[in-house]
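Annex B, item 7. Sequence and structure tokens for protein A, then protein B.
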Amino acid sequence: MVTNAKEEVSKDSGIDDSKRILFLQDTVIVTVRVGSGEEVKSWAIHKGLLTHHSPFFAAALNGSFKESTSNVVELIEDSPEAFELFAYWLYTGDLAPSDLAPGAKGLPRIACLAWALGDKLQCPVFQDRAMLQLLAYHKREWFMEDTIRLIYNISPQGSKLRSFVVDVICYDRLVDRSPGIAIDGIMAVEDFNRDLLDRLVKFDRMEDEEDPCDEGSPYLRVLDFEKNKVEWDIE
């Protein structure tokens, strides 16, 4: 049985493909139930994959909690949509292309929820995959008020997700690339006004600033941006 809780990653891909077959040989299957009420969805996943990539699952399934004997984990506060991406990523090393394809409905929302799920599950590679999608998204679209509110509701203070959205808003407005986001409408969001003002103070010399979406690396935890960045090949 595979019980290693330490995720081995490379900056090239974040997944050690040579180990995946070993994890799939684990005969223990875990049921993961995500969401609440009528929104609950269930997945059957190899325990070895879960415990290798997520210290959260390793602690739940290998420790003294009831989940270690029942092999059932309930994530009632989390998004089934985001966990679907996580399950797909566990088995493929990538995110489900249909859910995050250019123009997909709700792309920034599902990518943000996936990032937050990765934070809870202590899975930085999965977080980086979600962030790479957000970086690609903002090359062609803008983050609107509902996305900004969501980010501040699901991410902790000082997180890379918050830093990213504040940086792109500052940059877009300073280079006049913003579609006219009503900043006044989101200044009431807790912590956002402070983060925005702090960041604006640092824009002392505009010529020294680069597009955050071209920079990328400051918002990733483990992956190499240049080797993993997402390019949308659309008109």
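Protein B:
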Amino acid sequence: MAEKDIYAERAGRHPAEAQRLEEQFRLITGALGWILHPSVARRLGDSPSIADVATGTGIFLRLLSDSYPRARLDGYDISSEMFVANEKVNLSVANAKEPFPAELHGVYDLVHIRWLIAGMAPEDWEPVLHNMLQLLKPGGAIQWVEPAASQLRYVRGEPGSKTSTMTKVLSIFRDGPVQQWLSQGWSTLPALMEKCGLEVETDVVSSDRLVEARRALTENSLVAFMNFVRMMATKQAPGAMSPTQVDEMEAEIAKEVESGGYVTYDLHTAVGFKPVN
């Protein structure tokens, strides 16, 4: 039986979502201040083998390609629907929740993962980490960035800012078991990596570090949440809003963004180095 595509169920896979993901990647990279964690960048040679798992459009690899023209750049995702073709990057379908083919074991200097939380259940994190470890060469690194999604909130940026409707759409998205799912990964990866014998470094930064990017990141997050609300309305899911109510909510959200309300959450990076011996 084919693995269920949790991400597609929550967000859909289509050109508009691909465009949103590319913008989100660039905004988050700005907040982090790097595309490669400094400890990883110091250890990579001129011609590394790099795997990007849950690659989406492949934007991480495309952005790296100019800096590492001699690198092997391989992207893997459960679906090819959002792949963006690029002659410097190899994109293939593979499911992170299943072991990779033996010929890929021990091949990569770096395995990169970012924002896998959108397609994960709580029980998935440890087996996925084991699958990533199989890909690494001795001395290779895993760089894994996840948002503290269960702590995401909308706050005032100005004395008169409003956030009540933005907060409401967030509560709709978090309804039921989703909140438990969003509390995993970012909070558990360092310990899981240490359990696997990796040398671990961690980093935490706020998503709103760059004031000039706050509005764009807020609008990007709201597109994702409103897509989910609209999808539930279209499916006529139990308790879902009507399409008219969704339109009204979207209009109110636009006003709140204009008033200076913005999103904030922490970005957690776990870097794990595989022992040489």
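Comment on protein B: Residues 20 and 42 are 31 Å apart (CA to CA).
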